[in-house]
Specification:
The chain is of the alpha/beta class. It has 14 helices and 20 strands.
Length: 496
């Protein structure tokens, strides 16, 4: 979906006759003095709403007021900011998302929003405001016939006397990546096929001056991609092994590696899933969607470092040639894998992706994203991504940028003894761990076997954080775009 136009402007420059003017009120402070002076009659309405309890200025509460006295706008939208001491950049991101949702409810195409009565807006806050407006205003309507001609938000103005244009643009560019990831996750699997992901990668690469290499099914055997080759056997839909190279830095610049699970539909294979909820298995490519979303943001921002992205993409179906429990596959690095459950397929295609990228490139850090285990949802719910690592310093970086971006991760252990759970009697390893024990960690232990020694690596399981059954202020139901803001914050920290 196209993003709307978002610009920064000083209060004195704001044109008259805005469709809506949006402002904020803290529950413990009330109406700002400057606002009372500028809008005495409107302030009386708001005071009555506060006194009667119809509007309490709680976080993410909103109320619409109308006035004939103001030239700026006849419609004012008050946003509750909650308690001032608890207010931070992420609360601003949430409030901005609430504003966008209310504008859409009113079917408005434009509005002006101030920074809650303040004249100065710090760059980090301006970025959060832009992210919140875009992510909160996200709608996926590609396959739904509209009952009206409402096109959504087309233009918004952020008011403040500080120079925030660059921060607004940065937040918009990151949000572009989130939108790409969400859209990919929302498309049905008959549209978002591996070929669709490859075409998306090539379009992003063209815009961002990147190189792409797409390996086909017929390339897998000669290249040694036994993991994805095995998983893809049961589907007639052509699989793809997607490689993107962004070389934005000089010879001394850091190189970041990204790998994303691109399972465009997962039936479970012969170890077939229950029919209830199988429609959600179109989301099993959200790891790959996150990586493509990151690269879309990179194409806009063009950071001064190097980024290598790999997305192994396929379906997991149970056709006549499908791989079976008991089969043995050989991954790119030569390790053999005993298949005990064909529904533990994501780790098999990631095995080829991780071993390939760490063999071909010298990386300063590697992050993989995957909707890998239901166990991580049991452990963490839908608010944190689960993370495992082979390098604590790198993990600490990821945790730190997760806190700053509020695209949060929670580290889980990956001690060497967990490797005992994936040992096989007839192959190097098996693709499942101990029954009903540490399923997320066993998957991480499996993936670690395919990361070249000496490469700092973090595995991020987004099975819970990547999609929601119940939306939150700046996350809709369905795909959230988890991982995009996390890595873009890492990239910014590496540039400094």
């Amino acid at each position: 979906m196209p993003l709307f136009n978002l610009s920064a402007m000083k209060y004195s420059e704001l044109p008259k006759g805005q469709s809506a003017y949006i402002f904020g009120i803290f529950s413990d402070i009330g109406i700002p003095a400057d606002f009372k002076t500028a809008h005495p009659n409107l302030s009386k309405q708001i005071t009555l709403a506060l006194e009667n309890g119809e509007f309490k200025a709680k976080s993410n509460q909103s109320m619409v007021f109308y006035t004939a006295d103001c030239e700026t706008s006849k419609r004012y939208i008050a946003l509750g900011l909650g308690e001032s001491e608890k207010y931070d950049s992420d609360m601003l991101r949430q409030v901005a998302a609430t504003a966008a949702k209310r504008v859409i409810e009113l079917k408005l195409t434009s509005f002006a929003i101030e920074y809650m009565g303040e004249t100065l807006l710090a760059p980090d806050d301006a970025q959060a405001l832009a992210e919140g407006l875009v992510m909160g205003g996200y709608r996926f309507l590609n396959y739904k016939k509209s009952d009206d001609d409402y096109a959504g938000i087309e233009e918004a103005i952020v008011l403040g006397d500080a120079d925030i244009a660059d921060a607004i643009a940065y937040g918009m560019n990151i949000s572009t990546g989130v939108v790409v990831a969400r859209d990919l996750g929302n498309h049905p699997s008959n549209i978002a096929t591996p070929t669709y992901l490859a075409d998306t990668a090539e379009a992003i690469a063209k815009k961002g001056g990147m190189k792409t290499t797409i390996y086909e099914r017929e390339d897998f055997e000669k290249l040694g991609f036994g993991g994805i080759q095995g998983v893809a056997q049961g589907s007639d839909v052509p699989p793809k092994f997607i490689i993107m190279e962004y070389m934005g830095g000089d010879k001394d610049a850091k190189t970041l590696g990204l790998v994303g699970k691109g399972l465009t539909f997962d039936s479970g294979g012969i170890s077939i899933k229950p029919s209830a909820g199988m429609d959600e298995m179109k989301f099993d490519m959200l790891g790959g969607a996150a990586v493509l979303g990151i690269m879309a943001a990179v194409a806009e921002i063009k950071p001064n470092l190097n980024i290598i992205a790999v997305v192994p993409a396929t379906e997991n179906m149970n056709g006549g040639e499908a791989y079976k429990p008991g089969d043995i596959l050989t991954a790119y690095n030569g390790k053999t894998i005993e298949i005990l459950n064909t529904d533990a397929e994501g780790r098999l295609i990631l095995a080829d992706g991780l071993s390939y990228i760490t063999d071909k490139y010298e990386l300063d850090g590697l992050v993989d994203f995957a909707t890998l285990t239901g166990a991580v949802v049991v452990a963490l719910g839908h608010r944190y991504s689960g993370m495992m690592t082979n390098d604590q310093d790198f993990a600490d970086e990821i945790i730190c940028v997760g806190k700053r971006s509020q695209d949060r991760v929670w580290q889980m252990p990956l001690d060497d003894e967990y490797a005992e759970d994936i040992k096989s009697k007839i192959a190097d390893i098996k693709n499942t761990g101990a029954a009903r024990e540490a399923g997320t960690i066993a998957a991480g232990a499996f993936l670690r076997e395919f990361v070249k020694e000496g490469t700092p690596w973090c595995h991020v399981d987004i099975a819970g954080s990547g999609w929601l059954k119940k939306g939150r202020p700046y996350h809709p139901e369905g795909p959230t775009g988890a991982g995009v803001r996390l890595i873009m914050e890492l990239i910014r920290s590496w540039e400094k």
